[in-house]
Amino acid sequence: MPERKSFIIHIDSLDVLSELSDSDAGSLFKAILDYHTTGHTRLEGVLKAVFIPFKNQFERDREKYQKICDRNRNNGLNGGRPKPTETHNNPVGLNKTQNNPKEPDNDSKNDNDSRNDISPLTPKGKPSAYPSDFEQLWSIWPRREGKREALKAYQQATRRGTHDEITSGCTAIANAHRDCATPDRFIPHLATWLNRDGWHDDPGAIRSRHDAQGDAAHQRRGAGATAMVAGNRVLQDILDGKPRY
Fold first, then answer.
1. Which end of the chain has the least Cβ crowding within 10 Å, N or C?
2. Helix/strand/coil (H, E, C) string of the chain?
3. pLDDT tens per residue across span 93-125
4. CB neighbours (10 Å) of residue 173?
5. Which strand (E) or helix (H) includes residue 216?
6. Whose CA is closest to 191, among 53, 68, 36, 6?
7. Other CB atoms within 10 A of residue 192 CB
8. What are the beta bridge partners of residue 127?
9. How far apart are CA 60 and CA 197, in angstroms?
């Protein structure tokens, strides 16, 4: 693992803190520190489930960081950043980050830009503030909060994945949350999910966590019932005057 001096936590991923006690929130941050220093955590139960989205984001960030390190290392071995090549559309060989001459008109590009500038119409005939492809995604996600932030995150996400990939992953994760009746407070905002490339997540992990939590709750109820029966027996013995040693 490359040595890093910092890591990123998205602000909207911290919404879950409002649902945790101060003690659990502190344990979560200690687990984040443990993960970045040792690669391991010692969380259990609900906190272990809450940490999984953070862990997935950290792993994706680490992969991106590793790719950047590898690219820079290769460039260094090859004598530095690749030199620009002269082309017909770029006769002076400038990079895209430099002040290139005005790009030649392209009918296809202009047509695409025109289509992208047209906003879908609402039922009342007024232009919608959101593109139709994003509205499709928004209608799938079960937690309807932070729509404007979700649009910004979606526009960034489509640079890393196609609309079909994102929509397919969104549908699978949303169905898993609905099947498990996940409370909204444990479902991330759509913006948070998009920022961490959540369409790569395994929906089966959500169902596994739900089943594990259900089994644990059943065991706690069974233990409580056993303790109650034993307590009732002790009380009845006392009322009946039976000695207890």
1. C
2. CCCCCCCCCCHHHHHHHHHCCHHHHHHHHHHHHHHHHHCCCCCCHHHHHHHHHHHHHHHHHHHHHHHHHHHHHHHHHCCCCCCCCCCCCCCCCCCCCCCCCCCCCCHHHHHHHHHHHCCCECCCCCECCCCHHHHHHHHHCCCCCCHHHHHHHHHHHCCCCCHHHHHHHHHHHHHHHHHCCCCHHHCCCHHHHHHCCHHHCCHHHHHHHHHHHHHHHHHHHHHHHHHHHHHHHHHHHHHCCCCCC
3. 555 454 554 555 554 444 444 444 444 545 555
4. 23
5. helix 203-239
6. 53
7. 24
8. 121
9. 8
Residue 89: CB partners within 8 Å, gap ≥ 6? 103, 104
* 30: nearest Cα among 43, 45, 13, 16: 43
User: How much is the pTM?
Assistant: 0.40
Q: Which of 3, 53, 61, 64 is nearest to 31 (CA)?
A: 53
Look at residue 166 and tell me whether its pLDDT is greater than 70.
Answer: yes
Please, what is the average pLDDT of the chain? 77
Using a pLDDT cut of 90, give the percent of the chain over it.
26
Read off the pLDDT band of 34 (50, 70, 90): confident
Residue 210 scores a pLDDT above 90: no
Mean pLDDT within 61-85? 76
Calculate the CA dihedral of residues 56, 58, 61, 66 and round it to 10 degrees.
Answer: -110
